[in-house]
Design brief:
Number of domains: 3
Helix content: 40-55%
Mean pLDDT: 85
CATH topology of the largest domain: Triger factor/SurA peptide-binding fold
Strand order of the largest sheet: 4-3-6-5
GO cellular component, one term: outer membrane-bounded periplasmic space
Distance between the termini: 24 Å
Low-confidence stretches: 1-22
CATH superfamily of the largest domain: Porin chaperone SurA, peptide-binding domain
CATH architecture of the largest domain: Orthogonal Bundle
GO molecular function: peptide binding; peptidyl-prolyl cis-trans isomerase activity; unfolded protein binding
Radius of gyration: 32 Å
Number of strands: 11
Shape: flat
Keywords: Chaperone, Isomerase, Periplasm, Repeat, Rotamase, Signal
Subcellular location: Periplasm
Protein name: Chaperone SurA
Order of helices and strands: HHHEEHHHHHHHEHHEHEEEHHHEHEEHE
Largest sheet: 4 strands, antiparallel
């Protein structure tokens, strides 16, 4: 097996290992008290190492890949455990936890993969093999969910994508292809010869003034010079070779590329037309204002409810919404503008707010309702259908660019976490530095 492939196995998340490893491998681990390494305030036991080696071996066997030498496998498995434990120390620091719903779903997936129809049946099956095996597996998966969330939060915060990065991507062949944009291109190739560049330059000038590619190629083709030309019609940029697509993407309609000299000759392309993806993002927007009353050290939840009810009664009697919002709302940002939140798109507000906003008729005032932020009253003053295609495209570009950077930043973050951790390897046979 190639070293790079093996490292990918070792770098796989522990949750992936749990999900892909047979339950019997997990349950077979027997507890041992021997400490093989200390990581910050935690320890790694021999049983932890044996289990990790069993999981990795199981994965390699499932993929019919060669099992590396025992010493190398032990060292790499230990390094994986050290890196994992260093991350778990960060989980404690940031108090990241798996919620019960996500944990049950993850454990249930393992249960179904193991042939158990329910968590109860799965627990009985595991604990029949070895006591407390189910609790151990559940705790392991809970840790891995927390690790995933920690990585997502901290690594994502390290990724910086500028407006210029987004603009560059959207204008690139990859960005144009992602948007579903198509180009109508004429393509001419002059086969390699002593004067291919000169002929290609002449063809380029004629293409600038004419789209009759058939007449142009016929004019310049001789028994000594082979010239091929084609009208490629509309096609996705992703269907054009990368080298040529990169030259076409920045062109304006009617422009030709510079001469492209490659092994098989000199190429010239002309952009005849361009059309974007047909799908537009038309979304409903709500011009909304609200009043927020938040419980605090001086305002009990009961008092907050009484205050919002009182304000609702005053609004029903005709008092000015903007004046009351400016005077009483705890959302200082919107209170300064009479409670106005401007035009609000779906997906921006918390679910309780969005649901009330969508169900409130234009001009009407909602009844008081509660969200995680406190008690609200809102009013929808206007609605519209807004073309958000550009904003959606920018969000898509940021997501793609972020995904491209994530693995690199994750590797960098993991190295930092590992380097900053206090590590003491108790077993000299496992310490690569002492070899």
């Amino acid at each position: 097996m190639k070293t790079k492939q093996l490292k990918q196995i070792f770098k796989a998340s522990a949750l992936a290992l749990c999900l892909s490893t047979s339950v019997s491998v997990f349950a077979a681990a027997q507890p041992k008290d021997e400490i093989v390494a200390v990581v910050d305030n935690s320890v790694i036991l021999r049983s932890d190492l044996d289990q990790s080696i069993a999981e990795i071996t199981h994965q390699l066997q499932a993929k019919k890949q060669t099992i590396p030498p025992t010493e190398y496998l032990q060292q790499q498995a230990l390094e994986q455990l050290i890196t994992r434990q260093a991350q778990l120390e960060q989980v404690k620091r940031y108090n990241v936890k798996a919620d019960e719903k996500s944990l049950n779903e993850a454990v249930l997936k393992v249960a179904k993969d193991a042939g158990s129809p329910s968590l109860e049946a799965f627990q009985q099956k595991l604990d029949a093999v070895a006591p407390n095996t189910y609790a151990g597996l559940r705790a392991r998966i809970a840790e891995d969910i927390a690790l995933q969330r920690l990585r997502q939060q901290l690594v994502t915060s390290r990724i910086q994508i500028s407006d210029q990065d987004v603009k560059n991507f959207l204008s690139s062949p990859q960005g144009q292809a992602a948007l579903g944009n198509q180009v109508h291109v004429l393509h001419v190739r002059v086969a390699s010869s002593d004067n291919a560049v000169k002929i290609a330059e002449d063809i380029r000038k004629e293409l600038a003034a004419s789209n009759d590619v058939k007449a142009i190629t016929s004019k310049y083709s001789t028994k000594d010079i082979k010239v091929d030309g084609a009208d490629m019609g509309f096609r996705n940029l992703s269907d054009i070779p990368d080298e040529l697509a990169a030259r076409v993407a920045p062109l304006q309609v009617g422009q030709t590329t510079e001469l492209i000299s490659v092994r098989d000759g000199v190429h010239v392309l002309k952009l005849v037309d361009r059309k974007g993806g047909e799908q537009k993002a038309i979304v409903p927007q709500y011009q909304t204002r609200h009043i927020l009353i938040q419980p605090s050290e001086v305002v009990s939840p009961e008092n907050a409810k009484q205050m919002i009810d009182s304000l609702y009664i005053r609004l029903q009697k005709g008092e000015d919404f903007a004046v009351l919002a400016s005077t009483f709302s705890n959302d200082t940002g919107s209170a300064a503008n009479g409670g106005s939140l401007g035009w609000v798109s779906p997906g921006v507000m918390v679910p309780e707010f969005e649901a009330m906003m969508k169900s409130t008729a234009k001009g009407e005032i909602s009844k008081p309702f509660q969200s995680q932020f406190g008690w609200h009253i809102l009013q929808v003053t206007d609605t519209r259908q807004q073309d958000m295609t550009h904003e959606v495209q920018e969000r898509m570009a940021r997501q793609i660019l972020g995904e491209r950077q994530f693995d690199t930043e994750l590797d960098s973050w993991l190295r930092e976490i590992r380097n900053n951790a206090y590590v003491e390897i108790k077993d000299p046979a496992l310490d690569r530095k002492k070899k």
